[in-house]
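Record passed on underneath.
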Amino acid sequence: MSVQLLRQLFTVDQYDKMLDAGVFTGNERLELIRGEIIKMSPMGIRHEACVKRLNELFFLRLGKTVTVGIQDSVRLNNTSEPQPDISLLQRRPDFYETQKPQPENVFLLIEVSDTTIKYDREIKVPLYAENNIVEVWLVNLNEECLEVYRQPTANGYEFVQTFKSGETVEIQALSNVTFTVDEILGAHTD
């Protein structure tokens, strides 16, 4: 006798109602991906430091040009509401108090990856492409490089480039400001 597993998929509206009702504890790091509630891996100290570093870089260089989101939800569609590590968004007077950011509000999403590199590359990056996120950066802490994804299509990103130590990168929509891979990754000791 075989056992068939039943999966319950959720919409973003259902998921948000569960969050508002306190179904999950405040300490859980969750996101909705393709209707499934995913418990996110805990962040290591290097991951946390990289997120803080990026926040400071963007705040100092882009000031009042963008709104910087730190592990905030972005509503991609009716079944996916991920929480990228960093989101650079169009500025709004209400700071997205009345509506979560959606693809058309996004200049750049960033995932900082060490233990989650495979998941981020194979699940999240394609999901971002399908939902027309114009640019995604994957900060690969293991290989100490930056993977840049641009020109989204339904089948993935047409343009993928890897930047390493000593190289500079710019945000496609905000090309007047450059960043070095070294300042993104920061100095660290093992």
The beta strands are 30-33, 36-39, 66-70, 86-90, 106-113, 135-140, 145-153, 156-163, 168-171, 174-180. The mean pLDDT is 92.
